[in-house]
Amino acid sequence: MNAQAMLASSPLRRADRGGIAILTLDRPQARNALSEGLIGALTAELDAIAQDRDVKVVLLAANGPVFSAGHDLKEMTARRADPDRGRAYFADILERCSAMMKRIVRLPQPVIAAVEGIATAAGCQLVASCDLAVAGAEARFSTPGVHIGLFCSTPMVALSRNLAPKHAMEMLLLGEMVGAEAAARMGLVNRVAPAGAALDEALRMAEIIASKSAHTVRIGKRAFYEQSEMNLDEAYAHASHVMVENMLARDAEEGIGAFVEKRQPVWVGA
């Protein structure tokens, strides 16, 4: 297969706009289901971006009317013919998907989801795993596994870390579709844009973030997730340590100096 054909068949597309990397799920014919190939492509791209200091923000979007329908159930169901009824495969693909979701959380750069259409099951998990999310007005979200005898346990991990417990349990137990405005009230998304304009609004947010010190943003994102797993005393002690180190960074010195001198800062990324 030549390079052009390989690009055309890829389940993921990347475009760079200044310091913003736009990753687009590109399996519209399969409702952008998270197949082995798409999980692998996302993992590889996130690993590359983590090492790329030119990338300051990542946007995650999708091609077609569905953001992502979750795991590729056809791909998974085919493995029921395995001697172990698919047990080893199911464990492996879920571990790989979970590892990809954790890469988003642990990526040095902020990740913003731009959601149009529906995001269900692991697709909803993908949105919840991002640091920020913008939904088009007609976007809808659900964790509908309960309808087919498969509780959305792995999506539950991301949902329970973003939503109030009763909101998360409502989505998980009822499996109903949640509209964009309700998703914003519940904390699953940050903002609702006009239908079709989620990517534009996400880009606007990304450009604001990209104008800040990338070094400071990386410090802040890491510290946010670290302290969230600690008790109150540990969190304050950790945050104080992080802030001391941040104060000693060249970008903090430059930013504070620029504020005092009433000029625009010139970031050096350290």
Overview of the structural elements:
- The chain is of the alpha/beta class and about 270 residues long.
- The chain has 2 domains: about 210 residues, 2-enoyl-CoA Hydratase, Chain A, domain 1, CATH 3.90.226.10; about 50 residues, Orthogonal Bundle (Lyase 2-enoyl-coa Hydratase, Chain  A, domain 2).
- The chain contains 12 helices and 10 strands.
- The strands form 2 sheets. Strands 1-2-3-5-7-10 form a 6-stranded mixed beta sheet, sandwiched between helices. The protein has a 4-stranded mixed beta sheet with strand order 4-6-8-9.
- Helix 2 links the parallel strand 2 and strand 3.
- The N terminus is likely disordered.
- One of its GO terms (molecular function) is hydro-lyase activity.
- It comes from Enterovirga aerilata.
- Belongs to the enoyl-CoA hydratase/isomerase family.
Total individual domains: 2
Strand arrangement within the widest β-sheet reads 1-2-3-5-7-10
List the helices and strands in order.
HEEHEEHHEEHEEHHEHEHHHH
User: Could you name the CATH topology of the largest domain?
Assistant: 2-enoyl-CoA Hydratase, Chain A, domain 1
What is the first-to-last residue Cα distance?
43 Å
Total E-strand runs: 10
Strand content: 15-25%
Mean model confidence by pLDDT: 95
What is the CATH superfamily classification of the largest domain? Answer: 2-enoyl-CoA Hydratase, Chain A, domain 1
Globally, the shape reads: globular
At the first level of CATH, what is the class of the largest domain?
Alpha Beta
The profile of the biggest β sheet is:
6 strands, mixed
Give the radius of gyration: 20 Å
Low-pLDDT ranges: 1-7
Percentage of residues in helical conformation: 40-55%
Structural class: alpha/beta
